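Entry for adenosine-5'-[phenylalaninyl-phosphate] complex. Fields follow.
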Amino acid sequence: MKEQLLKIKEDALKELGGVKTLTELNDLRVKYLGKAGALTAILRGMREVAPEDRPIIGALVNEVRESLENAIKERGESLETEALNARLASESVDITEPSRGQARGALHPVTRVLDKLISSCVDMGFSVVQGPEVETDYYNFEAMNIPKNHPARDMQDSFYITDSILLRTHTSPMQARELEVRKPPFKIVVPGATYRNDSDSTHSPVFHQMEGLVVDEHVSMADLKIMLNELMKRVFGEGTKTRFRPAFFPFTEPSIELDVTCPTCHGEGCRICKGTGWLELLGAGVVNPKVLEMSGVDSRKYKGFAFGIGIERLAMVLNGVPDLRTLFKNDIRFLNQMR
Ligand code: FA5
């Protein structure tokens, strides 16, 4: 039995030398030390050993088991280290390799202009509100003093959803909505998307406006012009030339429009500005008393002024863009130039 034990030890250690993986090592452990392993078989045969030899054989079994366990453990550790080193070598990072770089995004020119306008108005004491893009005929037209069949409806070619619901053609309906719920005096601006069946180099079917409305006891056309001049100065700086023209809107009386020097010809006259040298930026005026009354505001006590600025037109002028529709094409080469 002693020889048998020494042979088991010798065979096991020899096999251990050839073990290359942790799986093979586990198989070897099962083969020699497992329940059905060679050493366990010897222990089972102890009954046949003479009683006086049992302690000697028992001690030898333990010694063989211990030395095999230690050898297996050591081999296991060295296999694990080898595996780790191999992984580290294959996954090593070459810190000298040049990086691919991260492309940095930027705000869209329309967002930048809108942010600038809003923050300038907030600095002047305006609150910002938003309204629905899907609007009723009542707020879009009737509450703005444009009754059904009024010729002024032709000024804005509208996208109707049903007979009484449409995509808002301007941000002005928010004047009526706010007049109904706010107690004067107040100053609000309303930025947002608007929709018209228009498309050429200065018109897009989807565009943005920012409405402004000031209601107080003593406001006048003079206040409106001072405010707009100040706003234009903040947005354009001192250099850009602006001019006011008389205009007509059913919801303001009197009404004006503000033009700026054309970004393409700088006032010389070109295709974009139809030879005038100017580009229309906004409509404005003193709120028609009928609009105040329809929304429940006493027009003998309160007056108001309002304006509606075309955001893409402003972005066009500020960035010298000859075709407004380019702002919506999302051509990355164009957007990179606009950073
Ligand atoms: C209006 O929409 C009035 N609601 C503005 C207003 C508000 C007047 C308050 C008085 C008081 P108008 O249709 O002119 O007005 O449009 C205002 C501005 O929106 C224009 O000056 C222009 O800058 C811009 N705009 C109009 N249509 C388009 C379009 N299809 N694409 C891009 N910008 C447009």
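NOTE: Residues 170, 172, 196, 198, 203-204, 207, 209, 211, 249, 252, 255, 280-285, 306-308, 310, 312-313, 324 surround adenosine-5'-[phenylalaninyl-phosphate] (CB under 6 Å).
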